[in-house]
Amino acid sequence: MKELVFVGLGLNDEYGLTLKGLEEIKTADAVFMETYTSRMPDFNLQHFEELCGKKIQHVTRQTLEEENGKLILQAAEVGKTVFLVPGDPFIATTHVTLRIDAEKVGIHTRIVHGISIISAIVSLSGLHNYKFGKTVTVPFPETPAETPYNVIAQNKKLGLHTLCLLDLREPENRYLTINQALRTLQTVEEQKQEKVITPNTVAIGVARAGSNQPMLKAGFVKDLIDFDFGLPPFSLIFPGELHFMEVDALIAFADAPVEFRRLFR
Amino acid sequence: MKELVFVGLGLNDEYGLTLKGLEEIKTADAVFMETYTSRMPDFNLQHFEELCGKKIQHVTRQTLEEENGKLILQAAEVGKTVFLVPGDPFIATTHVTLRIDAEKVGIHTRIVHGISIISAIVSLSGLHNYKFGKTVTVPFPETPAETPYNVIAQNKKLGLHTLCLLDLREPENRYLTINQALRTLQTVEEQKQEKVITPNTVAIGVARAGSNQPMLKAGFVKDLIDFDFGLPPFSLIFPGELHFMEVDALIAFADAPVEFRRLFR
Question: Would you call A113 and B120 a contact, using CB atoms and an 8 Å cutoff?
Fold first, then answer.
C-alpha cells in the first residue's frame, strides 16, 4: 500500500515511542529515521532495531533537504513506509514539505504523534500551559539574539511566560548552554536597556526534559548564570505573572528560593 | 519504594501510551487512572488491563479534588504507585496539587510524558509552532466567551495563531462543537464589533486529534459554522499571519480553498 506514516520517537531513548508507533514500524515495508532535528541522548539504534525487529535506514539532513526526501518517497511509492522523527513529527516544521510532496504525488500520509519537547518542558515546570505566550529559540552567541529578547519582553508585557528553546547543532554535537543563553540575552539587555533580563529577573532552567534525570532550577538570572545544569539538551523559561500555585510548583519541583512566595503574591 | 509516577496515556486509545509508560505500569504495586480531564474516545479499560497485566483503579474527580487524592497518596506511601492521566499528565494543571502534596510528605514523584492534545493539534495543522500565541478554551454557550475573543484579538494583533480548546464535560459526555464555538464567538463579535470573528475570518476546525481518523477543515467562518465535523473531541485554530508554507500545508492537509494562496501572499 502506498503510504507514508510519520512516527514520533518522543524524547531521550527507545522507550519514548508509543505502542501505536511500534505497531506501525512492525507492519512497515521500509523504515527511515532522522536524528538531526533533535537530540535523543540515550537512544541506541541497534537495540531499537532489535526491539522493532526491523532494519532502520538512517537519513541525513542532505537526504531530506537537498534530495527532497526522494529516497523516502520512492519507498512510499511501493509500500508502507515509516519515517521516524525525534519528538513529535511536525512540532519542528522541517518535515512539512516532505509530507506535502508525498500528498502531491498521491501518497497517503498519516501521523503517529510523539512526545514533544515543548509539552514535556511545560509539564515538568508545573506552570499553567495557557499562560505561555509565543515560543522562541535562543541562537548561538555568533548570531544576534534580539528576536528572543523582544519575544520575552512582549510576552512579559502581556503577563505571559516565555519558553526558550536553546539552539543546537546535533551533527556537530554542539548545544547552547543555559549559562551562555543568559549571557547572550544580557548582551542584548546592555544595548536595549529595557530591563527585560536583569540580574534579578526570574528564570527557570530546564535540562534533559523527557529523560530519566531531568533537572529544573528556578531562580534569579544572577544565580542561574553560573549554575551547572549538567548534560544537554537545555531550555529556559522566563515567567510572566505567576499564580501562587505556580510559585508552589516552582518551589516543589524546581528548587525555587522560598522568597518567591513573598515576591509573587 | 515510596514513589508516585505520573504517566501520560496520550490520546484516543490504549496504544497512545509510551513503551516507558507501559514498563512503569508493569513494575507498579498500585495503578490508578482518571479519565475526566480529557476524552479518550476509543479507550477500552478491560483490554488495557490485559495489555498491562495489572488491575487499574478508576478514580473520579471527587477522589482527587474533595479527598485530595488521599487514596493515591496512601498507596504511594507503601509502594510504587502509578497514576495514569489522559494526554500529558500536567498539560492540564489539575494534578499539580497532588504532585506537590506527594513531595511535601516525602513521596518521590516522577513524570512519564504522554502525547499532549496541544502538540497533536499543532502538528496536524502543519502550522509553525513558534507562531502560536496564548492558548485559550472556549466555554459552553451559558458562559460568556469574552476572554477567548480577546485572546484571539490580541494574538492576531501580534500576527500569532490562536489554538482554542473547546470546553467539555466528560462525565456528562458533553462537548462544545466547532459550530457552537463559532456562534458563541460571533455573539461576542456582535457586542464588541472589533471584526475579530467575521463571516470571512479564516479558521481551522480540528476533530479527533490523535485518533486514527482526525479531521481538519480550514476555511472561512461562514463555511465552517455549519460544517459537519463528526464526533468529538474538537478544537479550533484562528491563524494570525500565514507563511506561504503554512498555506500550502492548510491546502494539502486541511482542505483549505485554493484562494487562500491569493489571500496570503
Answer: yes
A122 contacts A151 by C-beta, under 8 angstroms: no
Instruction: Please give, rounded to a whole number of angstroms, the shortest distance from the CA of A44 to a CA of chain B.
Output: 15
* ipTM value for the complex: 0.93
Q: Is the preceding peptide bond at B232 cis, omega within 30 degrees of 0?
A: no
In A, minimum Cα distance to B14 occurs at: A19
**Contact check, Cβ <8 Å, B135/A129:** yes
Nearest CA-CA distance, residue B246 and chain A, Å: 9
Distances (CA, A) of A212 to A12, A35, B214: 8, 19, 32
Note whether B134 contacts A137, CB cutoff 8 Å.
no
B227/A105 Cα distance (integer angstroms) = 28
pLDDT tens track, chain B, 265 positions: 789 999 999 999 999 999 999 999 999 999 999 988 887 889 999 999 999 999 999 998 887 877 778 999 999 999 999 999 999 998 777 799 999 999 999 999 999 999 999 989 999 999 999 999 999 999 999 998 999 999 999 999 999 999 999 998 877 889 999 999 999 999 999 999 999 999 999 999 999 999 999 999 999 999 999 999 999 999 999 999 999 999 999 999 999 998 899 988 7
Contact A93 B210 (CB under 8 A): no
Option in B18, B97, B249 nearest A15 (CB): B18
Cβ <8 Å between B19 and A20: no
Contacts of B13 in chain A (CB under 8 A): 20
pTM: 0.94
Backbone angles phi and psi of B20, in degrees to 5: -65, -40
